[in-house]
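Hi P.,

Sorry for the delay on this. The queue was packed all week, but I finally got your sequence through. Input first:
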Amino acid sequence: MAKKPKKQQQSGGTPATVALTAAGTAYTLHAYEHDPASPSYGEEAAQALGVSPDRVFKTLVADVDGELTVAVVPVAGSLDLKALAAAVGGKRASMADPAAAERTTGYVRGGISPLGQRKRLRTVLDASARAHPTICVSAGRRGLEVELSPADLTTLTAAVLAPICRA
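Then the structure:
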């Protein structure tokens, strides 16, 4: 019996970029040299790319009433867990165990992308994203960001838009 060929990622691609390409979505990749000593992956990305921190969004995984949920918020702010829970009709939210987040998404911490996850999770995008023609999110590994429109990110992740960020 012949083996099925494995799906090949594009050369240098990540599951996020493969998903974007497969969907026919316009995007721009931005690579930079990641410093392992950097205390904040998102702020490092904003600085390296010369982009305002309110346009670079971090992907966080939270536990809302026992269900893993993705929150995408500007690196300039912090996640409001109460607002995240409310956005998805939940009561309580806490940050997910990092190992569970990595296992479920298929990405490593600091490189978790809202796109191309191993298991599609509920996603909430901070409403501030609408103020920008494009935003940057992780492309699936440290040192690689993808720039795309907030509308495309919302569509591809079936995200809810809600004010979930505290300045």
